[in-house]
Amino acid sequence: MSLDQRSSAILRALTKSNSCISVEELMKFAHVSKRTIYYDVKKINSWLQETGLYPLQYVRGAGYFLDEETKRSVEKEEIIRSYDYSPRERVAWTAIIIFIREKEIYLHDLMTYLKVSRNTMLDDVKKLKKILSSSQLELRSSKMTGYIIRGEEEQKRKSLSCFLQEIIVKEGREGFEEKLAHYAPSFLEELTTMFALFIESEQELSLKFTDDVLYMLSVNTLLFLKRMKQGKWIKIDSVEKNVLQETKEFQSAKTIAEKLSKKWGILFQEDEVYYLTTHLLGSKVNNYTTHNLEEKDFSFFRTIVKNMVTDFQKYACVMFRNEKEVEHNLLIHLRPAFYRVKYGLPVDNPLSHTIQSTYKDVYNITKKVVHHVEKAAHNKMSEDEIAYIAIHFGGWMRKEGTVPAKRKKALIVCASGVGTSRMLETQLYSLFSTVDFQTTVSLREYETMPLHVDFVVSTVSIPNRGRPVFLVNPILTEGEKASLLKKVSTIIEDGHVLSHSVEGIMDLIREHAKIQDEKLLYQKLKEHLYQPTLHGKGERSKPVLSDLLIKENINLKESLSSWQEAIRHASIPLLENGDIQEEYIKAMIKNIEELGPYIVITTGVAIPHARPEQGVNKLSMSLMTLSQPVSFSDKDRHQVRLVIVLAAIDNETHLKALSQLTTLLSERANVEKIINTDSKEEVTDLITKYSK
Q1: pLDDT in tens, 142-182
Q2: What residues does the PRD domain cover (predicted)?
Q3: Residue 662: which of 310, 316, 389, 383 has the closest Cα?
Q4: How many CA atoms lie within 13 A of 579 on its CB side?
């Protein structure tokens, strides 16, 4: 039998997915009813079994998935080759083809390459024109020239990079390479050469690029070369040249340019060397050597990082135990991020929307601290860049205090850099109570290192080296967690116990029935019997502001002579309720004496707090206003009339209420209203208004 177009598309989607796809997601993907999806699943399973492959597997509450062996087999079948581009992919491929064209490209060429009708192609061209216009670029066509794109060369290359990133993220490297090779047959051979050049530059720069960045550097530079062959050159400002000349990356760019000139017969213009330097500077790395970190420009970035971490702790009302380690890991990410922001280099963060929704509170606090980068770079930071930094902070907030049990060993392979890997690590630590996860490595490190682990968790497709490999997304949904738990269950200790139960059931079935496929039945019984439960801390519910700042915890118009007295007095309701211990008040005062008035978050407002283990029994808050200000330092900006004590039980549970409080305090009229009122009801009404 053969599959129809819709069933083929569903099968392709399952082949590309690293996790379960729910019935609802498949309905949305195919634009059909639940009944039709079940009908398509039945057809797909019949086709798979006819082909000698395992059928789709189902996880209750999560959805359908294909095991890795079936995925590999399906990809070899012709069905997977007849790929249907999505409208967005067609637009991206149209742009790429026009950008790197070596001859005139006309409408019929695009129709042939993308396998669409004339009307569809005209509609795609119209969409592309609109996208390009937002980058000050213009798509034109004539009988003599075919399709051409007008505008600044730098903008053209930025757009080309964005389209490339979009395609590679959606289709994967193999899919991208296979399709581009149809249009540019020498591409794969040239890409291998380019890849080797950038690996050599790693040694010269004493650093390791992330796998994703190394690949994108190679692809971008190779396609930029094709534009240079057409006489399309970049222009760099003379002031920027003076700055770029002082970097090690400039020397490495000169070496790469010389090698490229010899290999491709192109005489690099000086400005192209500077342009390549900006891309090297903006490339994410996994690590720097100690020598790198001692260089002059790193002191500049250390100052920015320290200010960001200090502000984040202030706004989040948390205190990192390993503050220096937090700063060190953020420093590795921030240097290339700074140059991307400064030079407007595009970065694609496929997790951006997930981070903004799943970790909304952390993302919003991160937005408040990136001004340190923006001010130094003289440019705004994109949402994708902010999301990457939010991953760093969110990962550390979850990691602190988490200790995995050392029973089974596993390795994490991540191609996206330290921030993404940190977020994945912390999720896996809390998910598997019986697994000790080793250090996170890149794809290239995985391919050469000795493996002393029981299984591997990876965000990218990797070679099988005799250990089970589980593909995941860097941020796991509850359905994906359930799916991963189900798959891993057979190799952790729970799986050992389970196997005996399954064998017993298999023996009973053999006695009373004929089994057509023992291997498949065994697998299905394991999946059915193993109902995953999430290990570790799990997700605490996050109370809103009105749950914490209750009327009984509010005192107004108090007269006190010092900030120490203000903190003690504001804490009394929490102490009397048993929410905190006396030592917590002492810890808050000691922190300010040692660290300064970091708790003064805006004019007239202080939020004193200490670490949860320093005497917090229950998540709580109290509020007190003063008839006259108390001073937290000799500076006018540290005069305070509103004190809000926060007693947090961890780094996360208070963030929703804190975010609502921050929004309330951001309106100066609200602060004045609270300070000047004699009515507790007026304060609680205002708090309720912002607790939604």
Answers
A1: 999 999 999 999 999 999 999 998 888 777 777 788 788 87
A2: 183-290, 296-403
A3: 316
A4: 22
The domain locations on the chain are 5-76, 290-399, 408-529, 545-689
Look up the CATH number of domain 5-76.
1.10.10.10
Q: Which residues of 318-357 are buried (b: 16+ CB within 10 A; e: fewer)?
A: bbbeeeeebbebbbbbbbbbbbbbbbebbbbbbbbebbbe
- Give catalytic status of residue 609 as yes or no: yes
pLDDT tens digits for range 406-455: 357 889 888 665 556 666 777 787 677 567 787 788 888 888 888 888 88
Angle between helices 5-16 and 68-76 (to 10 degrees): 130
Q: What radius of gyration, in Å, describes the C-alpha atoms of the chain?
A: 29
The pTM is what? 0.55
State both tokens at 491.
């190799």
Indicate the CATH number for domain 290-399.
Answer: 1.10.1790.10
Element (H, E) at 409: strand 408-413
Structure-block tokens of residue 288: 């720097």
Catalytic residue among 279, 609, 638, 654: 609
- Only one residue has tokens 């729910």, namely 22
Q: How far apart are CA 424 and CA 422, in angstroms?
A: 5
Whole-angstrom distance, CA of residue 146 vs CA of residue 109 = 10
Strand partners, 626: 558
